[in-house]
Amino acid sequence: MSVKAIKPDSKIVLVIGGSGFVGRHLVEKLCSLGYTVRVFDLRTTFEHEKVTFYNGDLCNKQDLLKCMDNVDTVFHCATPSPLSNNKKVFLRVNVDGTKNVLDACFEKGVKNLILTSSASVVYSGSNIEHGDETLPYAKRPLDCYTQTKIQQEKLVLSANSESLKTIALRPHGIFGPRDPHMLPTTARLAAAGKTKFIIGKGINKVDFTYIDNVVYAHVLAAQQLQQKPEIAGNAYNITNNEPILFWEFMSRLLKGLGYAAPKYHLPYYFIYFLAFLVQIFVFIVSPFKTIRPTLTTMTVALAGTHHYYSCEKAASEFNYSPVVKLEDAIERTLQSVPELHNKHAKKVK
């Protein structure tokens, strides 16, 4: 990562969810900058000589307290996969777990808390163009993930005080090396021949955010929070600041993986209604069988509407600007996943 003006730091920081996608990248960057890093997660998925790992459950405050002695800043990145569609798990981790994090921070005298939130907290399926942080929370979230992320963000921002300064960062469409969702799902659907269709007219613009930019924003926000306490208690959009047509982005990923770009258009509202029926069916059979459909009202809305955001607030209040451009980000991501490339790519025209 080509990082601007981030100075080394020797303070102790804790990354909750540090074994996940965002968390691990953040841990590696913090180590390279000289921080003393601790990781708290359900399990340890990697090794690092400069990191102290703690395994535990967010919903057990005693587990959290064990790793918070002398911690200056907590980065709260833990969240279930948005694709899991398990309301009980979302509530347990995003809401109940976050309450425990806040209680533990106050009890141990942690000074700063940076939450990895989501731009989806203001999204309810309608177009958002140049959306800023004055937008209200979504009144009718399209999925349980968004609903609980709203509750989580409210908890964290309302906890801001003289003793614990809090910030919520709202990245959107995170992707990059070791991405466990976007690239693997895209490759799996392409291999199954399910990426031939465009939902809607294909003219909707969206934001995608490279993982290095997300990490940079977290470190920068934490350091600026100590210098500018007035930014505490705020939420900030974090994106690549390069809105792109959703279907152009997906086409570039597919072509880069060796698959054909989608070309057949399907009516947006018809597919949305179909996804709605699928969700009703999933709800009806849920007492007997767990089904995780790829087609949901949220995935259809994200594929067929505008949703891109302004980063002006983050730029003006703590000097955020992306350090990796979208073109380079896509190329780096594709190069990082040779195992996902189509083995029969030469046959694709």
UniProtKB/TrEMBL annotation:
EC annotation from Swiss-Prot or TrEMBL: 1.1.1.170
Name of encoding gene: 20210137
MF GO annotations: 3-beta-hydroxysteroid dehydrogenase [NAD(P)+]/C4-decarboxylase activity; oxidoreductase activity, acting on the CH-OH group of donors, NAD or NADP as acceptor
Protein family per UniProt: Belongs to the 3-beta-HSD family.
Pfam families (UniProt xref): 3Beta_HSD
Topological category with respect to the lipid bilayer: Single-pass membrane protein
UniProt entry keywords in alphabetical sequence: Acetylation, Cholesterol biosynthesis, Cholesterol metabolism, Endoplasmic reticulum, Lipid biosynthesis, Lipid droplet, Lipid metabolism, Membrane, NAD, Oxidoreductase, Steroid biosynthesis, Steroid metabolism, Sterol biosynthesis, Sterol metabolism, Transmembrane, Transmembrane helix
GO CC annotation: endoplasmic reticulum membrane; lipid droplet
UniProt pathway annotation: Steroid biosynthesis; zymosterol biosynthesis; zymosterol from lanosterol: step 4/6
3-beta hydroxysteroid dehydrogenase/isomerase domain boundaries: 14-266
Protein's recorded name: Sterol-4-alpha-carboxylate 3-dehydrogenase, decarboxylating
UniProt main location, coarse: endoplasmic reticulum
PANTHER family with a match to the protein in the record: BIFUNCTIONAL POLYMYXIN RESISTANCE PROTEIN ARNA, SHORT CHAIN DEHYDROGENASE_REDUCTASE FAMILY 42E, MEMBER 2
Organism of derivation: Helobdella robusta (Californian leech)
Stretches that traverse the bilayer: 269-288
Subcellular location: Endoplasmic reticulum membrane; Lipid droplet
Subunit organization: Homodimer.
Reactions this protein catalyses: 4alpha-carboxy-4beta-methyl-5alpha-cholest-8-en-3beta-ol + NAD(+) = 4alpha-methyl-5alpha-cholest-8-en-3-one + CO2 + NADH; 4alpha-carboxy-5alpha-cholest-8-ene-3beta-ol + NAD(+) = 5alpha-cholest-8-en-3-one + CO2 + NADH; a 3beta-hydroxysteroid-4alpha-carboxylate + NAD(+) = a 3-oxosteroid + CO2 + NADH; 4alpha-carboxyzymosterol + NADP(+) = zymosterone + CO2 + NADPH
GO BP: cholesterol biosynthetic process
